[in-house]
Every structure is written in C-alpha cells, then in structure tokens.
Design a protein that fits this description.
Layout (H helix, E strand, L loop, with lengths): L6 E4 L39 H11 L7 H10 L7 E2 L7 H7 L1 E2 L1 H14 L3 E8 L3 E5 L2 E6 L1 E6 L9 E4 L11 E5 L1 H18 L3 H14 L4 H13 L3 H14 L4 H13 L3 H14 L6 H11 L3 H14 L4 H13 L3 H13 L4 H18 L2
Parallel strand pairs: 2-3
Antiparallel strand pairs: 1-6, 4-7, 4-9, 5-6, 7-8
Helix pairs in contact: 3-4, 5-6, 5-7, 6-7, 7-8, 7-9, 8-9, 9-10, 11-12, 12-13, 13-14, 14-15
Length: about 375
C-alpha cells in the first residue's frame, strides 16, 4: 500500500517567490466566518513533544557523537525503532506524526525536521515536481504535489555530507525536478493542506482560517488564495471568490485550476458569456483536462456500456498510471465485461497505490469478492 498524498492544492469547483510581500488588503473577509474550532498555533507545527524527547534520548543521542545526521537516519530507516507508515488520511504536525507513527509525506518531513532541529542538523526543504498527479474527494479535485528534506552535518569534518530523505521515492527519477523552498513555504503548505481537508469535511469556517493563515505565513503561495476562493464559493460569497480567482490569474495566467474555479463562479452568477470565454481559453490550453475521461467513463458505466467505460478509464490510466481510483473503476468495467482476471489485476494496483487505510480496505474487499466469483 502506497500511503502518501503530500500537498493538496484545491482544484474545486488546486511555487514560491523569494521576494517578501504582504497579502493584499482586500483578500480576507473575517466577519463572514465563525472563529476556528481550535486555535491555529504555528509553533505547534514543529513542536517537540515529551515522547519525541524520550525517543531521541534513547535511540538517537547515544549514537550522535560521531555524527547526528547518521544517527537520525538510522532511526528513521530502522523498522525496529520508528516503524513509520505512510497515510494520507490527514496532514499531521510533527508531534502528531510521531505519535501515530504515520502521516503523509509532508507530515513525515515536518517530523524529521523537528528531530533535526533538536540535533542541530541543518535542514533544507525541496518541492519535487513530478508528472502531474490528481486525486479527488467527492466533488473536490486535487493536484497532488510532493516534498522531501535534505539533512546536512554541521561541524563534523570527517563525516561531512548530506542526505536527502524521500518518504515516497519517485518511480521514474528522470521525471523528477526539485526546487528549494523556504520553511515558511512548508508551513504554508501544511496550513493549506489542513484548509483543504477541512473543506472536504464540510468545516468551512476552519478551512477559511487555515487558508488565511497560510497566506499570512507566505503571501506568494498561490494555492492558498485559490483555497480561500473555494471557501468563499462554498459560502456563496461569489463576488469575493471571483475577485480572488481573478487576482491569482493576474499572476499565473495559465493556472487551469484557478481558471476552472473562476468559470464555475461566473456560471453561478449567471454570467454565461464570460464563463464561455474562459472555457474556450481552457480548452485551447488543455483540451482534455484531468478526470475528463474518467467522468465520461462513469456516465458509460451508468449506461452499462462497459466497453466504452473501459476504454475511457484506460485513457486516464495512461496519463496517471498510479492513481488508485482509476484502476478501481477500470476493474469495475472489466467485471461488467466478465473479465475477472483483468479486474483482479487492476484492483491489486489500486490496493498498492491507495493513499489511506480506508481505501485500501475497500479495494481489498472488492478484490476478495472478484476472486471468489472468478472461481465459478
């Protein structure tokens, strides 16, 4: 089971400059939202819990005299110590990831950085750009990104060097491109993830405050603006959402995620001609956007046209070979066609690439059902 969905950029309805800027004054509308259900404390993101201190004292510190970086690496890689599991159900802070011994890539990067800070090991963060990967939760679509962390020794000449820790190594390193990002950007990514997760769960007020804080921490992080826009749209603050989406497009005129959101907002206001104009621009930039074949495949499944559904789902698999839901529905189409061998194959791939324990268990149950029926 591959359990990692690190960066959620809301596409409903989802980068970093070095020049310090302030958030535009007309972005926030605090009076439209109730206070968050829990305080948002930035210090909690890297906070070092007593349990983490006990682990450091027992498993890392005794071996750190000749090089703390190597001692930390040993602890991370030794299943007898941390026993980490990747789980994208939620984005945890450092202490939460340690307590659960699991988390998505971003959570495990935060946990690693928290240990490194205690050991005075230098930390660098990298946003890793691979082939674009998509996910969804209900009607909210996500662009899934990836981060890793590089640790460097300080003052250990004989053991000088650095190590990059990637909790989800790429299948094809040739398609991986990394960009150094600041810790403020990492913090903004964490907050934006929490905002999107809150939005998915219907906690609109919490989503607003998390995304708002992400912008305050890193005003150049465009995804957080897009998330605030999605929150405004959910709250039926359509003019505010439109203004925010337009503001992002001024900076990133080819951002299809935001463009799609702007189109939906214009349509909801009855401004069809403007929405159509943006739709034509989107079509020129990307004639077949993510999930377009998938959605047509679902329509074919409802019509019991399993052959057409299979062909459409295969097109999505061709451009997102490891997204679990595509393989699940391709397996369903094969069941409809009576090809249980192919159905088992794609359910196996769905299980291996699931991003949460819940999804894995669903696919495992379907696999068992198909295996039982294929015997007869």
């Amino acid at each position: 089971m591959r359990l990692c969905a690190p960066l959620l950029l809301a596409f409903m309805l989802a980068a970093c400059a070095a020049v310090p800027v302030a958030a535009p004054p007309d972005v926030f509308e605090d009076s439209a939202f109730m206070p968050p259900s829990q305080p948002i404390r930035i210090d909690d993101i890297f906070a070092f819990s007593p349990e983490m201190k006990q682990f450091l004292d027992r498993y890392i510190a005794p071996y750190a005299r000749s090089g703390p970086r190597a001692a930390l690496l040993d602890a991370l890689e030794n299943d007898g110590q941390l026993k980490l599991e990747y789980d994208a159900e939620m984005t945890r802070n450092a202490a939460q990831a340690f307590a659960a011994r699991s988390g998505n890539c971003l959570s495990l990067v935060l946990m690693t950085a928290a240990f490194a800070k205690q050991l005075d090991v230098a930390v660098r963060y990298q946003q890793v750009r691979v082939e674009e990967t998509w996910g969804r939760d209900g009607h909210i679509f996500f662009s899934i990104g990836h981060v890793n962390v590089t640790l460097s020794d300080r003052g250990f000449a004989r053991n000088s060097g650095e190590s990059t820790i990637d909790f989800l190594p790429p299948r094809d390193p040739s398609k991986q491109h990394g960009t150094l990002i600041s810790e403020k950007t990492v913090i903004a990514m964490y907050l934006n993830n929490r905002a999107v997760e809150s939005l998915v769960r219907g906690r609109i007020d919490d989503a607003y405050w998390f995304a708002r804080e992400a912008i305050l921490q890193e005003p150049t992080y465009a995804s957080a603006y897009n998330t605030v826009g999605a929150v405004y749209e959910r709250r039926n603050m359509l003019a505010s959402a439109e203004r925010l989406f337009a503001k992002v497009l001024e900076r990133e005129p080819r951002n299809l995620h935001v463009m799609s959101n702007l189109i939906g907002t214009l349509e909801a206001q009855g401004r069809t001609s403007e929405a159509n104009r943006w739709s034509r621009i989107m079509t020129r930039l990307d004639p077949d956007p993510p999930f377009s074949f998938f959605n047509r495949g679902l329509v074919a499944m409802k019509a019991h046209d399993y052959a057409s559904a299979r062909d459409l789902f295969e097109k999505e698999v061709d451009r997102a070979a490891y997204y679990h839901e595509f393989h699940y529905w391709l397996a369903a189409a094969y069941v409809g066609l009576g090809d249980y061998a192919q159905a088992r194959e794609h359910l196996q791939i769905a299980m291996e690439n699931s991003t949460t324990r819940r999804d894995h268990d669903i696919y495992a149950a379907k696999y068992a059902w198909v295996a039982a029926h294929s015997i007869h």
